[in-house]
Amino acid sequence: MCLRPEGMPESWEGVPTEGWSAPTAEIEAQMKARSLLGRVTTLADVGNAAVFLASDQAGATTGTVFNLTSGTVVD
CA 31, CA 19: separation in Å to the nearest integer? Predict the structure, then answer.
């Protein structure tokens, strides 16, 4: 299985942003605007998905890519 998040602003903390195309707040706003859910994925979202996939509740799940992009990538 594969967890597929995309562009989590929470993960940018402490990352050098010189040379980025825009300020991080503007990039985050653009991500939210293009997301089908109108929000960005959080680290908690990824953690919750990992816990679910490791649990007995996901026991019948096989060979999948778990899309955690909040709808910025539509499979």
Answer: 18
pLDDT of residue 74: 86
Residue with tokens 């979202």: 45
End-to-end CA distance of the chain: 15
Instruction: Spell out the per-residue pLDDT of the chain, length 75, in tens.
Output: 899 998 899 999 889 989 999 999 999 999 999 999 999 999 999 999 999 999 999 999 888 899 999 999 887
Answer yes or no: are the C-beta atoms of 42 and 10 closer than 8 Å. Answer: yes
Kindly write down the DSSP assignment for every residue of 8-29, as one continuous string. Answer: -GGGGTT---TT-SS-HHHHHH
User: Residue holding tokens 């026991």?
Assistant: 59
Report the run of H or E that residue 34 belongs to, with start and end: helix 24-34
Of 45, 37, 36, the closest CA to residue 8 belongs to 45
